[in-house]
Amino acid sequence: MAVSSVAISPRKLRYDLYSYSYQEQPNTPLVISVLASLIERTMVRNERIVRNCRWALSRDAKTRVFDCNETPDMTVQSYLERIFRYTRAGPPVYVVAYVYIDRFCQAHPEFRISARNVHRLLITTVMVASKYVEDMNYRNSYYAKVGGLTTNEMNELELEFLFLMGFKLHVNVSVFESYCCHLEREVSAGGGYQIERTLRCAEEIKARQQEEGRYNQIAHVLL
């Protein structure tokens, strides 16, 4: 999918949120790119804060459940696209996941989204949001495979997240709409360039991986 083929506009975002069809639109919904752009900028800001103030590191052992021993070699954009491709969670699920991430960060101000915890936080919030929004869902074991985790890890992350959130998962229509408006403003108020850059980076990584895959196939045949 070429970057130029993606209509980056508030109207396109809202259309995806309320009228997206898997059969008619094979492309990834715009909300994923907007969310990826927001989270990646938050990570950059947090890295700057931690670099300047070591005390800003999270000292809450409970929130460290989202930390990975090794940082996954996958961008936020690519990870969200993977979740979408294998779970087919609808665009509203990602808005609700965004609500949960925002609530989580407000409830635990010492927690900072970083490269070490973002992937586990995303797979957990998307899974929980999907259970809240969708009528039918995959098992935790399936989400674990999609997210690169074991089933036990996925179960633990879900349980810890629910308790850390105080089980406050309800998202009413007005809250959902307010977050949709925030995402729309992100697109219209200069966020388009950031989103386009995120998409371009994701496409470059995909192209590089495909090229490496072809090279490995040729090498295998020659050997």
Polypeptide structure, described:
With 223 residues, the protein is an all-alpha fold. Helix content is 67%, strand content 0%. The longest helix is centred in the last third of the chain and has 50 residues, at 173-222.
Radius of gyration: 18 Å
Mass-distribution shape: globular
Number of distinct beta strands: 0
Oligomer: single chain
What's the SSE pattern? HHHHHHHH
Hey, roughly how much beta strand do the residues contain? Answer: under 5%
Number of helices: 8
Task: Give the biggest beta sheet.
Answer: none
Question: Taking all residues together, what is the mean pLDDT?
Answer: 79
- Share in helix: 55-70%
**Unreliable segments (pLDDT under 50, ≥5 consecutive)?**
1-8, 191-205
Structural class: mainly alpha
Distance between the termini: 33 Å
